[in-house]
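idk why but the lab printer keeps eating my pages so im just putting this in chat instead. protein + zinc ion:
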Amino acid sequence: MTEIYTVTENYNDEYWMRRAIKLAMQAQEKGEIPVGAVLVADNEIIAEGFNHPITDHDPTAHAEIIALRRGGMQLQNYRLLNTTLYVTLEPCIMCAGAMVHSRIQRLVYGASDMKTGAAGSLIDILRHPGMNHQIDITGGVLAQECSSMLSAFFKQRREQHKALKKLKAQQQEMP
Ligand SMILES: [Zn+2]
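predcted complex ->
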């Protein structure tokens, strides 16, 4: 019985993660790092968000923060009890802190972030023994899709920078 339950749960996680990936693509269309987040309770979407700090001139406009803010508005409560947040990339320290404040029950993320991940990769904010609120974490859901989306984005951006540099150099060479 336990096994059947686990399979069902994983299926649901992948389902919501696919929605988060779609949101991440919206970020990418705006030239932002592709990260998307979906806040879910009782098998329903409460709120969504995608990363857009550059467009909004807002260093806090990460996908998770957007989803948590909208979730609070939607529930008319600053505590987002019994909710699960799905995000395509392991959250940073800022977002992990916001998750603790919002009291979400569970975090599900896709790709790990070795450089800035605050759900265990760099630091573990969400399960820190000194924290008064502990959050359940499931990592690595559709990790391959989530991380290849990111690496394709960064590769494209490097190529764009290179092409721009080349163009500038050519312009300087002109008499
Ligand atoms: Zn963040």
